[in-house]
């Protein structure tokens, strides 16, 4: 089932104890697509992403299935999923503050390095092309970067693993409007490199602008889905998510 899609969930459900944070949901990401999951605080967006990435906390339990390139990911660790081509940039950007920018990036290619690929320099130059700011600051301690630069570093580190699917949890969170614009511009450029993106966002307007397809998640369930450009013109979406902001 679902063997065609890059990513497909089949009745993926997540519970924290008895609380169902994500009801059984089906989502798909095709190769090279940008798919967004929008919705309010607490809707279950991070929960869905973490379930897909294999990054749920111990208190979370999961039912249903996640398929990546047709392969059932049940029982496969987060590290293995990274090696298979999925990278997650979590909401808390989790950088190594006392390490240099460049060393944070190199950690992102660690799994590939272990798998025998010793030449990370090519991918490093790809990342530096996308983020000239990181190149300028390659020897700076990650902890001294600005919020926007930290988000770039988190994105760059995930890209060092050469993912087929990049999963971004609220990349615009806490950033100034100008930086948000820059981050979304980079997301669009990333698509041109062929990587598929699953983008969780509260910034519905910006997310619908870059995405091909969108899901609206409300209290743990998909309330609406469709072509992103069409959803941006849907009166319900406009009233609820695009209103005044
Ligand atoms: P936000 O944008 O605020 O991060 P979200 O849509 O990503 O929201 P989740 O973080 O996935 O939502 O949370 C969904 C629900 O699950 C919320 O009610 C939240 O309180 C609950 N929840 C999240 N993580 C846990 C956890 N580790 N243990 C128990 N409940 C949790």
Automatic annotation (TrEMBL):
The keyword Transport applies. One of its GO terms (molecular function) is ATP binding. Keywords: Amino-acid transport, ATP-binding, Cell membrane, Membrane, Nucleotide-binding, Transport. The keyword Oxidoreductase does not apply. Pfam families: ABC_tran. It comes from the Bacteria. PROSITE patterns: ABC_TRANSPORTER_1, ABC_TRANSPORTER_2. Residues 7-244 form the ABC transporter domain. PANTHER family: ABC TRANSPORTER ATP-BINDING PROTEIN (PTHR43820:SF6), HIGH-AFFINITY BRANCHED-CHAIN AMINO ACID TRANSPORT ATP-BINDING PROTEIN LIVF (PTHR43820). Belongs to the ABC transporter superfamily. This is ABC transporter ATP-binding protein.
């Amino acid at each position: 089932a679902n063997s065609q899609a890059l990513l497909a969930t089949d009745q993926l459900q997540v519970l924290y104890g008895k609380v169902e944070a994500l009801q059984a949901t089906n989502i798909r990401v095709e190769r090279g697509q940008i798919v967004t999951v929008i919705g309010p605080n607490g809707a279950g967006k991070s929960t869905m992403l973490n379930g897909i990435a294999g990054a749920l906390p111990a208190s979370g339990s999961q039912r249903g299935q996640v398929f990546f390139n047709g392969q059932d990911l049940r029982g496969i660790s987060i590290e293995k999923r990274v090696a298979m081509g999925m990278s997650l940039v979590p909401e808390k950007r989790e950088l190594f503050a006392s390490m240099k920018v460049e060393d944070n990036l190199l950690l992102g290619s660690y799994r590939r390095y272990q798998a025998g690929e010793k030449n990370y320099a090519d991918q490093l130059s790809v990342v530096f092309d996308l983020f000239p700011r990181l190149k300028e600051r390659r020897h700076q301690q990650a902890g001294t970067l600005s919020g926007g630069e930290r988000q770039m570093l988190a994105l760059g580190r995930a890209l060092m693993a050469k993912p087929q699917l990049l999963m971004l949890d609220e990349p615009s969170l806490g950033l100034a409007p100008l930086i948000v614009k820059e981050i979304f511009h980079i997301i669009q450029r990333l698509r041109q490199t062929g990587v598929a993106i699953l983008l969780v966002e509260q910034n519905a307007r910006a997310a619908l602008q870059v995405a091909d397809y969108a899901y609206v998640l409300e209290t743990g369930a998909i309330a609406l889905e469709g072509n992103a450009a069409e959803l941006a013109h849907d009166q319900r979406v406009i009233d609820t998510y695009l209103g005044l902001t």
